[in-house]
Each structure stands twice: as C-alpha cells, then as structure tokens.
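Following up on my earlier thread - several people asked me to post the actual chain instead of describing it. Fair enough. Here it is, all 484 residues.
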Amino acid sequence: MSRRILLSTLVLGLWACDDGDESTPSGDAGQAGASGEAGEAGQGEAGQGEAGQGEAGQGEAGQGEAGQGEAGQGEAGQGGGEIEGAGGVGDTFPIDGEWRVGVSLVELGGFKLTVQFNTLADATGLATLNVRAVAADQSVSEVLKTIEGVEIDQENRFHAAFGEFALPGAYSPTGSDVEMNLTFHGEVRADNFFCGTVTGELITLRTQLQASTFGAQPWNASTTPLYSCEDTGEPVILPRLEAANCPTFEVDAATTFESGGVERSVELYLPPSYDAALSYPLIMLHHGLGDSTEEILTASAMLDLIDEGFILAVPRSANAASEWDYLVETGDRPDLALFDDLLTCLSAQLSVDPDRVHATGLSAGGLWSTYLGLHRSEALASVAPVSGGLIVSYPEPPVRLPFLVTWGGPTDEAYGQDFNLFALSLLETLTAGAHPLIRCEHTLGHTWSSDFTPWVLRFLLDHPKGATLYDSLPESFPDYCAIP
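Reply from S.P.:
Thanks for posting it. Predicted structure:
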C-alpha cells in the first residue's frame, strides 16, 4: 500500500490547518473597496483609476499595505484582476473551469486534502458547482456531488451547501468511505483566487466543523494548494525554546509551559537511584485518543520498571481531534515543537544520554511515535509503537531507525478504524524502507497490556543509536513476536 491508509482514530479526514504568514494572496485591504464601497470602478475611498489598480490606484482602501501591483491587492499578494462589486460575475470573473481547492480542517489537527471544483458561471453566480476527490497522483474521481444556483452577492461572497456526500475510500487516507456534510462560505478575492471557511460535519468521524478554512486557485496554476485566505504556500516555522528559557521540571508531577506558542504539559519520572553524574536513556510515552497520561501509565505499568534505569517523560496532547500531529505530510507543527523543546530542556537539566532517546505510545500515541521515528530519526534511537501506523506518506528519513511494531491482530479496531490494516501497511512500508524490524501480533485487540512492557522496554534499551538488531529474539519476547 503506497499511501498510509490510516487515520487512526481520530481522524482524518481530510485536510488541515496551515496558517501561513503575513504575506497573503490578497490582503484584507488589498481588494476593491476594502475600506470603502466597491462601486462601478471597484475602487476604495482613495482608489483612483478605472479599476482601482496600478500606480494610480494606491488609495487608502485601493490596496493592501504594500499593494502597488497591477492587481491592486494585498501585501505580497498574487496576480489577478480585481472583481467588480455589482453583478455580472460571468463577465468579470473567469470562474468557469477547474479549481484546485485545499481545505484545512482545524478540528482534525492539520491533515491536508485536496479536492477539485468544476464551475459554470451565469450572470448571478454559479449555475453549477461540482466537487471531485483528488488522489496523490493528481487523478480525480467521478463527480461526488453537484449543486446549482450558487449566488455571488455584491460583496463577492457566496455559500455553497453541498449537503451529504461521501469521500470514496480510494481517495481517503482511511481506506474507507468518509461520509460528510459540508458548506463552503467563500469570497472571490481575484480572478484567480477565492477562499473562505468550511462548516458542517464529518459524519463518519462524528466531528463538527466550525473553524476550518479553504483556498482555491485554477487547477493548472500550481500543484500546491492554498488552504485559507491567508495562506501563501510559505512554510510556517514555530518558535523553539533555548535551554536558558526552559521551565524547571518537577519530578513525579506535571510541569506546564509554553511550547510552539501553545501551553503544554509533561509528567516527568526518574529512577530511584538517579545520579546526575551518570547518563540515562530517555523514553517518551504517548497516550491514545481520548486518554490521559494517567491512563497510559496505568495500562503500561511502566513506572513499575523505572528502577531499570531510565528517565520517563509522559507528555499530554493539546486535545486536538486527532490527539497528536501525525496527519501532516510536511511542515512544522506544535507537537514537533513539543518534542524538540522537551529534548532540549530535559537534556539541559538532566543527565540524558543523547544516543538513547526513544519513543513509544498506544493508538494515537502509537501513530505519533511512528511519525516521530520517521520525522525525528536523527534525534531518536529506536521506536516501539503499540497499535500505531503511518497515515501520511513515507518521508525517506535520513536514518532508518529500528522499529518494534506491536498490534492486536484482526480485532485491533478503535473509533471505527482498522488498526490491523494500519499495522500491516506500516510493516510493508518499513520493510520497503530497509528499517530493522520486529513484529509482535498479540491478537488481544486494541490494548496495551502490562505484560507487554518488559519486552517493549527491553527492545528500546537494547537499541541505542547505531545498534544492530538482534540476530534472534531474546527469550523474554513472547512467541508471537518475530524478526521478519
């Protein structure tokens, strides 16, 4: 399976949230009549010139802060003519044709998906509007839903209520159909760009949408979608903590601090015999969807084995719909910032061995541990996801870390998702990527039994950076584990 079907628990869905920077396709003031009415000439209070554009169209409302381009649009905005404010959409806006639409589902933690709109304009708006799914190879599906009579008002705004339709499994990261009910609330910003918000429901995932966004540009303009009115396609880099600005971590308790602009929390545990003069492995343990740090600590009983000599960090998620940021193909995310900050800060305050940093977790925590093992391969030594998987594409990591892949067999299901399928797909992907690998199919379903923890720990602690995989499994591993 070339693409991670997954979704894991939570999620998936479809799209994601990537906020971009201040440079926008068309700034809020960078369009006709941004601070004044868009009259016949489509210009602002001081916007001169027939179309409120060009060097003469530099009025207070005729453009954005730096919008002196011919399109009279916002700071660093993209080209394209302005739209007249009064009727006649078909005459002033080349809206007929195919559009690449990127949707950012804020409620699902940032997973991005592209759809295609097919439009046919009339004098008042869109006579017809079709939506199609888009695959990774840019092929498109049959029409999923058609709506008619979408009016574009004098402020160039529209509401396109598609009602219920299904994203086909062949185009869905879950590998199964996703039923949804979506309304696009849009604004035409230029003859080559419209954008807005998305509301409704991902019915299959029982997720209400309120804060999601979209951006649309001509299909052949770029293969990189825009996902909001503010998105420029430029990457957003979140801030990282310097050692001097780290919080002082409490032991056997939770410490709250800001990471990547978000308030986060982590619980820290040290072995009873901790000696600052020595160095210790660091294990990061991640909880699942809807779970807590307390629940993953109880299920795994990992604290019962901490006297084996490791530092244990148990971060709390930011309570996103997906729990952790494993749905984003590329780019920076708050949970990546959290991992980086924890590694920086814990290493500055404790005797962490940089060659023995490991990640593990259950369900959504297993999905996130897998993601870290591929996107932070130079920082980690080994990874042990339990009922995890990979939703996004394999990123070709610079280091092929060893993985212990544990899952519950055919009954490993949660939130309507097939984690057995996720695990099998992950094994196929890791094998193709030449990762050292152990598989453990326990057939107990979607769970982490405390019986697993001794051999999960054994694997992690036996595999610091540069270690080779076992020639044969130690006797402490159960019979259902094997080296493929």
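The helical segments are 89-92, 293-300, 334-349, 364-375, 419-432, 453-461. That should answer part of your original question.
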